[in-house]
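Holo model, iron/sulfur cluster. Inputs:
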Amino acid sequence: MPVTSDVDVNPKADADADSSESASETGDELPINELFESLQGEGRLAGVPSVFVRTSGCNLRCWFCDSYHTSWEPTHATMSVAEIVAEVESYDADHVVLTGGEPLMHDAAVTLLEELDARGYHTTVETNGTVARDAPIDLASVSPKLASSTPTPEKDPTPDGNAGEWAERHEERRIDLDALATLVERYDFQLKFVVSEREDVTEITDLLGRIRDAAAVEIRDTDVLLMPEGATRERIAETRPVAAELSQEYGFRYTPRLHVTLWNDAPET
Ligand code: SF4
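Output:
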């Protein structure tokens, strides 16, 4: 079972959506939504015991976000980098996953990664690929968001139905070819695409071609991971066959969502 952290997560009064985008914290502290130990659920390192540091705040608003409380309704405690490192060191795992939200929005993410690197941790950063930083990252897990991620009146996770306010901003921001090229050039990487339906593959191959054109490094088909969309076992059961079939057809890698299979949509998994 995942180990519950004792991070005191206080619902912040910043329901204002824009406040979740701005990295207003100082250079040595981060808004932390969750800090816990579990198994990496996705990607090349699926199954590896890891400490997860989940920052709050995202510059996008995917309708299916499985980290709702880091993007749509951010809640967090503020922790210094020293406090985060001490908490990480209290666990046994030697892999750390810095995730969000969009962790690279925050200046202090670089400081944290430097401190973890100095202590010999393997670091994975889960990013939506819209921000590139110069930081010691062992695996950049880059997940560009497809058009199907954009919130609409029909796909609106907010209780008061205001997802439409975000649609335009999300659409403008979700692909940044310069940032994507920098991330794949600078780091060992995996490109992870969330698959909701079979039609997504057209956009994936088109975007992959654009990233390959923009980047000065080879992107192999096996660097591309297709992951079923869904934060519950029921939804994953629907999307899993599509992601698996497309992976076989196109020579991409399929990645499970191990944490959903094991723990469904429980927090801190
Ligand atoms: S980029 Fe990730 S954290 Fe941000 S809204 Fe989309 S799924 Fe959520």
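Helices lie at 68-71, 81-89, 108-118, 164-173, 177-186, 200-214, 233-250, 258-263. Residues 1-20 have pLDDT under 50 and may be disordered.
Archived with the compound record.
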